[in-house]
Specification:
The complex is a heterodimer of chains A (302) and B (363).
Chain A lengths: L22 H14 L1 H18 L1 H4 L31 H36 L4 H13 L2 H12 L3 H27 L3 H8 L4 H37 L11 H8 L8 H28 L7
Chain B lengths: L7 E2 L23 E12 L2 E13 L4 E5 L6 H8 L7 E9 L2 E2 L5 H7 L4 E4 L13 H13 L3 H14 L5 H4 L9 H13 L5 E5 L7 H18 L2 E6 L2 H7 L2 E6 L2 E7 H6 L4 H8 L40 H5 L5 E2 L5 E2 L21
Parallel strand pairs in B: 1-5, 4-9, 4-10, 7-8, 8-9
Antiparallel strand pairs in B: 2-3, 2-5, 5-6, 10-11, 12-13
Helix pairs in contact in B: 3-4, 3-6, 4-6, 6-7
Amino acid sequence: MTVPAQTLPPPEAPPPAAPPAAAPAQRRRALRRILRNPLSAGGLVVVAVMLLAAALADVVAPFPYELTNFDTTLQPPSPEHLFGTDELGRDQFSRVLHGLRVSVAVGVLSVVLSLLVGVPLGLLAGFYRVLDPVISRLTDTMLAFPFLVLAVGLAAILGPSQTTATIALGVGGVPLIIRVARSETLRLRELDFVAAAVADGASDVAVLGRHILPNAVNALIVQATVSVPAAVIGESVLSFLGLGVRPPTPSLGVMISSAQPLFRDGPWLAVFPGVAIVLFTLALNLFGDGLRDALDPREVRR
Amino acid sequence: MTGVPRPRVGTGAGEPVVAVDGPVVAAAGGPLLAVRDLSVRFATEEGAVLAVDRVSFDVAERDLVALVGESGCGKSVTAMALTGLLPGNATVTGEIRFAGKDLRRLSEGGLREIRGREIAYVFQEPMTSLNPVLTVGRQIGEVLRRHRDMHGAAVRRRCVELLDLVGIPLAARRLREYPHQLSGGMRQRVMIAMALACEPKLLVADEPTTALDVTVQAGILDVLRTLRAETGTAVLLITHDLGVVADVAERVVVMYAGRVIESADVDELFAKPAHPYTRGLLDAVPNPARHAEGGLREIPGRVPVLSHSPEACTFADRCPRADDTCRTRRPELAPGPTGHPVRCWHPLPDPAATPPRPRGGAR
């Protein structure tokens, strides 16, 4: 029993068969749009190169990061030691690469953790009025709770490590993600297409998963690209306090903080890790901007 | 909305039983939809609001019934109440029978099975009723996957078929487009295609043409008319536009301040309106022939917002024929001078001179 496919106004000639896979084409188009914008394309390239260098640090780095050489301490940058050496004669270029790996891993994983916990809670808080007060008060409480106390507590239980720093930063970032997800849900749930989906018999799960979440993704991506740099910096704070990565493992934050007393004798010790943080966060933000525009189907296609 | 407590289930206890409010448009073999004594109250910050006051009407299979009235008369609320789409601050009483089922007794899950599959809706705002980040094909397909358990190529075939049905050319290409790439008229056709995806028994069209310009409007009405002929779907058309009513409807139910005040076949209603309000509505339709007499005639005043059902005619304050009876006693829906049900103490007599229909209803 199907509706007779008779046409009302005569349609034009039968259209050519469409390729069945629309989604990959859509993603390719998004990539093309990112590359068309020089700023976001540059951001993508820089992020990709830095991620690659960090991932392949073991191969790319000219020296082991913990190798000390007391004949060449506090050398300024030279062809042999591109970023110079520190007070123990360790090659700074190798240490920046390894430090970048640690910092990026902590930054990205902690934001992923925040998203995994925060997005579902935010959607629920925005969608179910009964749950909203509970989740929102929980969020307020977490925001009122000093982040460092939380980190110290976690470090006391788990012991200071990269994992501890990731969890502490991830948990600390949850309230912000909840707020973004909740406010987007509150806005979207009042829109006509959500009401229309309900009238079509969509379940709550379908409404949240197919209509609200996809429309909230843009705001969440923007929030995530802001949160990753913040987490990278947060990691350096925790490591500086001895709650995160322990020496001799380098992270960009550890390197900057240990360079402080030596700033007059070896300014390059602080400059290169600092530049790495700035470059990475800036590139990530530019890429995030481009990604948001590219994912928006309303953006005019040229 | 989902996610909030559903309207409380009442049985109508405490409501006076009204004998006269029988089926207003009887249909042979039992109607598809029978609404009896449907009342809807909203709890608001300013106190209770009675939006629908013991409304009864029928929609037969293949019928096209128009629910007519001014803004705020309760017609949309009535439509939303059918499948429990009202927000949590609404209290619904009365009976809604649909295809042998008592919809008021169904759980939220049971109603979800009805929505989109047996009773489908088309809303007023085509510009915002489609999800902006999903392609047209995904959105139509979603309904099919949900209710019909269709997958893959079958979904695609059916989507193309549906777009053809509602008169969208290049259907296969349109399926891959996003709502913003379509015009308002196209989007409303897509909405209708979605509503028809599962061959519902009843299509509720809530002001489907209000947001569209006149030529597009004519196209959409054509679609509704043809659909009925081809698929046998009954249509409950909610509108304030009597031109649209004259054009497509078979039966008309006129609502005022939450009450049904008159109902009749469309030709009879336009020829012999019995309620002064219906007459006022007809007179308020722009008509070049009457233009010389001083332009548009309007009904003075506006629809009252009621907190309870008054023991009076709700139209009395705006009615030229009102007297003390109208202000102190509630009129019931009863056969009037012209035979069809009307809720008025002083209905208009069967006119000798037939008022002109606002627009040629020839079809």
